[in-house]
Specification:
Two copies of one chain form a homodimer. Chain A has 66 residues and is mainly alpha-helical. Chain A is built from four helices and two strands; from the N terminus they run βααααβ. Helices cover 53% and strands 6% of the residues of chain A. The structure holds a DNA duplex (30 and 30 nucleotides).
Chain lengths: 66, 66
DNA sequence: TCTTTACGTAAAGTTTGTTTTACTTTTGAG
DNA sequence: CTCAAAAGTAAAACAAACTTTACGTAAAGA
């Protein structure tokens, strides 16, 4: 799975720490997500999508190997 | 978080086992999701949404305590 | 240059997702 | 009613998410 987090943060002018605080996780969690270190839970992706006012599918994408 | 999985399965006339096989998890995983035993990963919710041809947000819902 | 802010990263530890096996209960068709 | 399919459940084991602490680097401004 890939994601657009970095771009969305840029659009909304937020740091990793801002986003982390906003959705209630650690900054390292946001960083690890952006670097594709792991797949977040559905609660996290729903929260992030809600924060950015976009569907989950426009921020997180399945890849062939998923 | 809540979800509509049972309803969606009914609409598509699928058993838990059908859905499990289709997205590559065990039947117990589907069952546990329906019974709100845990929060699935974003890869799973994306796959399920794709299978049912609906946005993730129409199948999985944040609740106040999320 | 010194300091601050943002980002990257890593290790250890806790929590939670997911599988496997296996058994019970419910439901629907015949 | 009876049998089979579907759903519910549970425990043990393993994998992955997530936290905390902590340190390194680069950029930008005073």
């Amino acid at each position: 799975m890939k994601n657009n987090l970095k771009v969305e943060r840029a659009i909304h002018n937020m740091t990793q720490a801002d986003l982390a605080e906003c959705i209630g996780v650690s900054r390292q969690t946001i960083n690890a997500m952006e670097k594709n270190k792991y797949v977040p839970s559905t609660v996290l992706s729903l929260k992030i999508a809600k924060r950015f006012k976009k569907p989950v599918e426009t921020i997180f994408f399945l890849e062939d190997d998923d």
